[in-house]
Design goal:
Layout (H helix, E strand, L loop, with lengths): L3 E2 L7 E4 L5 E4 L1 H9 L11 E8 L6 E6 L7 E3 L2 E3 L3 H12 L5 E8 L9 H13 L6 E7 L3 E8 L5 E3 L1 E2 L4
Parallel strand pairs: 3-5, 8-9
Antiparallel strand pairs: 1-10, 2-3, 2-12, 4-5, 4-8, 6-7, 9-10, 10-11
Amino acid sequence: MSPQIVKSVGQAIRYTKTDKSRIIFDEAVIDTLMCYRQNSSLKVEAGGLLLGRHLKGGSHIAVDLVSEPMRGDRRTRTSFFRGRGHERFAHECWHNSKGVFAYLGNWHTHPCMYPLPSETDFDDWRNVLKNDIYEGKNLYFVIVGTKGLACWEGCSQHGKFVKLEEYIFP
């Protein structure tokens, strides 16, 4: 299946996780991510962290906020390295929300229509799963292309990644 094609800004996107629950990306999050599409040759890669809530009464997750590119990041047309400011931002969000907002994963852009992870991406994601501090056993990784975006679930127990399918309401 192709990455989710975002036809317009202002729409939430839902994916089905491997446990059949949902990860829901808020409309404002999608709008923010789409602002960083590399839809001209002058735009460099962008990225940040996914922050949100583990919803009560189930294993659904809501992505409510993302960190955006900031000073200390290293950005080129084909690479993005997060600076330490993203970690500080995530900690501030967690502290100010009294522990409600959690670190859920990472996002970055690729200069292509429908993105796929590179070997560098997979290596980075494995490192994140092994070394970052987070709730649960899974993190989520979003790549934003010029025409769409895609989401992968990474599991710390076996270090594998599964591309998630968009949830379509019945």
